[in-house]
Amino acid sequence: MDGFRASEVNLVVYIQPSKTKVVSEAITRELSSLLFKYNENFDGVLLAYEVVEIMSKRAKILSGLFPYLGVRLKSNLLLFSPKPDMCLEGKVVKLARESIHVVVLGFSAAIITEEDIREEFKLKIKHGEEVLRSRFHKRHVIKAGSIVRFLVKSFDEEILHISGSLGPSYTGSVRWLDKNSKEDHVAIRSAEKRKERDGQTDLEGHISGLVEGERIVVCTVLLIVPHKKSLLNHVRELTSAGIWYPCGFVWKNFSSDCHIPVSFMTTTHSDLT
Questions:
Q1: φ and ψ of 65, to 5 deg
Q2: Which sign, positive or negative, has the C-alpha torsion 171, 172, 174, 180?
Q3: Spatial distance between the Cα atoms of 237 and 243, rounded to a whole number of angstroms
Q4: How many whole angstroms from its chain centre is CA 164?
Q5: 54 with 71: CB under 8 angstroms?
Q6: Using 50, 70 and 90 to split pLDDT, how confident is the model at 88?
Q7: What is the pTM of this model?
Q8: pLDDT of 56-73, one tens digit each?
Q9: Distance separating alpha carbons of residues 254 and 241, to the nearest angstrom
Q10: What is the set of domains in the chain, with CATH numbers?
């Protein structure tokens, strides 16, 4: 999840003269009043702080009706500062046909409107409950209580309200996305180990050679597929005629809706369509 930033800053905390007997408690009280609020000086929402050092035992007295004391200190801050195109995660609290309502970190509200939900998701009623289900992956479901990963479109600093999007393929249910990313990693590692064991290398471009008097042509093409199952179906269709034979897939760095290099081999000059 994006949006977090750690910062070491020098601060001046103003405390009342009546609180000077226990300065540490007064500092804690003042800093705690800034928690979960947007601060322009920090350019973010303060989530946590740690007082590293009180830089001087002397404090500057402010003139006025209430002579506050300015205590200089060094502090580590944890800030939440979401920006456009960052990925955030939150819990779905309400799901309707027009929008998805999400709570981020328990204090910031986010909304994802219908126009920002990719067409892959369709609203369905399951056991009397509204759910968003993917048309491509039946187990990819978003419902009330789900943790979703979404893209930030804008952030209203005054009311801590986020406008989000489920447009990119890497957004959706965190549970489903994480599970499938692990499966992709296992598939990639298995393929790499197979190649190391068999002494294989990736084939790129056009390679031709002579084997037993026949001309062998190897061709690598780019297939545009939404997911791995579609890739396998694509390959089956291309090889159903028995002319071209698959001899290598490049699974590395596989992601949805991308170009996948696939190598084919034939003993003729047939065109691959």
A1: -65, -40
A2: negative
A3: 11
A4: 12
A5: yes
A6: very high
A7: 0.62
A8: 777 777 776 677 888 999
A9: 27
A10: 4-80 (3.30.1490.120), 87-177 (2.40.50.140), 201-266 (no CATH)
